[in-house]
Amino acid sequence: MSWSFLFLAGCFEVVWAIGLKFSDGFSRLAPSLVTIVAMGISFLLLAQALKTIPVGTGYAVWTGIGAVGTALLGIMVLGEPASPWRISCILLIVAGIVGLGVSSGFES
Question: Which of 41, 69, 71, 105 has the fewest CB atoms within 10 Å distance of its CB?
């Protein structure tokens, strides 16, 4: 169950990271509210996951999911560049996330 919490926490991190862009420096109400709520949910889920997942693994996986998801949405939604070098680096982050999960046994 902890790994499910961690995955969802990472997904909500993507929501708030993209929300920061759409909030325009917290000057737009609706995107700002979505961003703040997503932050709260993300941190609550991360806290639940870290009850049983080692903090180093959990934090790295959480930020990795957020980084990969935000980079991919940046490419797909915001028109950011999708160069082969950038995609390769995203894949390296994915490999790190999977490696940390496997080395921790996805046991919780």
Answer: 105
